[in-house]
Amino acid sequence: MVDQVALESNAVFMGIEYLAIFICGLSGGLAAIRKHYDLFSILVIAWVTALGGGITRDVLLGDLPPVGITDKGFVLTALFSGIIVAVAHPEIEHLKWSMIVTDALSLGLFAVNGTAKALAFHTSGMTAAFLGMFTALAGGTIRDILLNEVPSILRDKHLYAVPSCVACVLTVFAYRASVHWNLGLNGEMVLDVAIVILVFVLRVISVKFNVTFPGAMERHHMHLPAQGRYLKRPVIHPEGRDDNVGRRDDDNDD
C-alpha cells in the first residue's frame, strides 16, 4: 500500500504545484525560443522541462504510466505554458526576478514532493533522496540535453543543485520524525513547508548576493612522492668536483 504524500493532501499546495509546473514550462519554452525552434518544439521542451523530472522519478519507482502523461491537469498546464511563452516571450524575458523567485519555489517543492513520494513507496532514505533530486533537476537537465546545452545544474554557478540535495535529505529526516513522534500528515506538512522555504531562501540569496559553492582548491606547487630522490639536481663545484660522485665513492670504500 502506498502512503499519502503530505503536501498533496492540501489544496493550497496542489495549486502551488500547478504554478510550479507552469513556471518550469515557461522557462523551458523560453529556452526553445532562444534557439529559434518552431511551436511544436516549444511545446515539447516546455512539457519536458515541467514534467520530465516527475516522469523520471515515476519510471524509476515503477509507478507506470507516469503522472507526467496521465494527469490531464499537469499535462495541459505544461502545454499551456508553452503556448503562453510563444506569444508573450518578450514580456517574460524581462520578468527575470519573478522567474527566479518562482523557480526557486518550484525547486524546493519538486525536491520535497519527489522525495516524499519515493518514501511513500517505502524506498530507503538514500533512494528517496536521489529520486527527489531527479524530480527537481531531471526536467531541466533533459531540456538542456535536447537543446545541446551544458546542463544548468553544472552551468549555474549559484546554489541550485545543492539546495535541492539539502531539501531531499531533510525531507527524509522529516518523514522519519513524523513517523517516530506520530505527528501525522499535518505535522509532516509543516516540516515539508519549512524545507521548501529553506530552499527558496538559499536559492534567492545565492542569486541576489552572488553566493557560489567552492570549487577545487587553488594550488601553485606540485609535490611528487619520489621527486626528492630522483629529480634532485647535483651540486657542481667550480673546480669540477661532483659532491654526489664523491659521496658514492666514500660509500664504496666503506
| Overall form | globular
Secondary structure tally, helices: 11
Order of helices and strands: HHHHHHHHHHH
Radius of gyration: 27 Å
Report the sheet-strand fraction: under 5%
Mean pLDDT: 85
Instruction: List the quaternary state of the chains.
Output: single chain
What percentage of residues falls in helices of 4 or more residues? over 70%
The parts where pLDDT drops under 50 for at least 5 residues are: none
Q: Could you give the distance between the termini?
A: 83 Å
Largest sheet: none
Kindly state the number of beta strands.
0
Structural class of the secondary structure composition?
Answer: mainly alpha
Structural write-up:
- The structure is a single chain.
- With 254 residues, the chain is an all-alpha fold.
- Helix content is 72%, strand content 0%.
- The protein has helices at residues 11-34, 39-61, 67-70, 72-93, 96-120, 125-146, 152-155, 161-180, 184-208, 227-230, 243-253.
- It is globular, with a radius of gyration of 27 Å.
Summarize the helices and strands and which ones pair or pack.
Layout: H1 11-34, H2 39-61, H3 67-70, H4 72-93, H5 96-120, H6 125-146, H7 152-155, H8 161-180, H9 184-208, H10 227-230, H11 243-253
Helix pairs in contact: 1-2, 1-4, 1-5, 2-4, 2-6, 5-6, 5-8, 5-9, 6-8, 8-9
